[in-house]
Structures are given as C-alpha cells and as structure tokens.
Specification:
The protein has 170 residues and is α+β, with helices and mostly antiparallel strands. The protein is built from six helices and five strands; from the N terminus they run E-E-E-E-H-E-H-H-H-H-H. The longest helix has 21 residues. It starts with 6 loop residues before the first strand and ends in a 9-residue tail after the last helix.
Length: 170
C-alpha cells in the first residue's frame, strides 16, 4: 500500500503524486471504498482515482527507481528483446512491452531500437515508422521517470541508457 505524498509512475499518466487516500462513492456503486487520488505532474489540474482494493490497477502504480536501480538496469546484460521481422507482429510485441510497464524490458527495448537507429545492429538496417513511434513513446516514458532522479535532458535519455554518456544524481 502506498502512502499520501508518495511519487509514483502510473501507466500512461506517467509521474504522479498521491495527494490523498480517501473513502469515496462513485455513481452506480453500492457503498464507498478507498481510492488513491493521483495528480499527474505533467497535468496538475487532472486527477486519477485508483481503487486501493484493485490489484490490477494498483499494480500499475510503481515507485520511482533510485539512482542505483537505474544504473543497475542500464548495465543489465539481459537481451530477451529480439527483433521480429514481421512488422505487425513486431509492433504488437513492442506495444505489449510498453503497456506492461516492465522496466527491464522497457530499458532493453529502448537500447535495441536506439542501437538500430544508430546503425549499430548488423542484422537490422533501419527502423520503420511504427518502430520510430515506439521509440518516441519509450523516450517520453523513460525521461519522465529518469528526469526526477537524474540531471538529464530529454535528448540525452537514449545515449544515457546506452552507456554513451554519464549523468549525475539530482
């Protein structure tokens, strides 16, 4: 269970602050229940209500990584993310990774796509438009979290993850 004032990542909303945990009733439900009230950092006028008893929705809330955890993920040699030649299958697979919010796979996918874009992969010559779009989404997701922990510009996210540049703790 998370506490009030905790900073979390919540799915597509990105970085959010838990501003309250309140007992509420929403139309159509019998009785009330507790909700996390999240406010996205990128849109402070927006609120997201997450039932505290929903394992599925609460599982999408994750604490920010520490600096050491980020460095550990970057240096991870896991290479389970592989290029799929069929564009539709690859796009579906990459979107599954994005939607899973599995940080290891997100970091590994970002590395794979970045290396292909930089011409560092001998098996794949270029990224397709759908791959470029996934890479843009990955960059935004990673930047939203990493910039809270590390002094980093958005265009430095992929070189940092690939170990090409170093950044310091905030």
């Amino acid at each position: 269970m998370f506490e009030k004032d905790t900073i979390v990542i919540y799915g597509v909303e990105g970085i959010c602050k838990i501003t309250d945990i309140a007992n509420m009733t929403f139309g159509g439900f019998n009785g009330s229940k507790d909700y996390y009230i999240l406010v996205p950092v990128s849109n402070p006028t927006h609120k997201v209500y997450v039932p505290t008893d929903s394992e599925y929705l609460a599982a999408k809330m994750q604490k920010l990584l520490s600096y050491d955890e980020i460095i550990s993920l970057i240096s991870c040699e896991k290479t389970d993310i592989e290029w799929i030649n069929d564009n539709k299958q690859r796009n579906r697979y990459f979107k599954e990774i994005l939607n899973s919010y599995d940080r290891i796979n997100i970091f590994m996918l970002a590395k794979l796509l970045y290396n292909i874009k930089q011409g560092k992969n001998e098996n794949v010559k270029k990224l397709y438009a759908s791959d470029e779009e996934i890479l843009k989404k990955l960059t935004k997701i990673l930047y939203s979290e990493l910039s809270c922990v590390i002094s980093l510009e958005e265009n430095d996210v992929l070189p940092f993850i690939n170990g090409e540049i170093e950044c310091s703790k905030k």
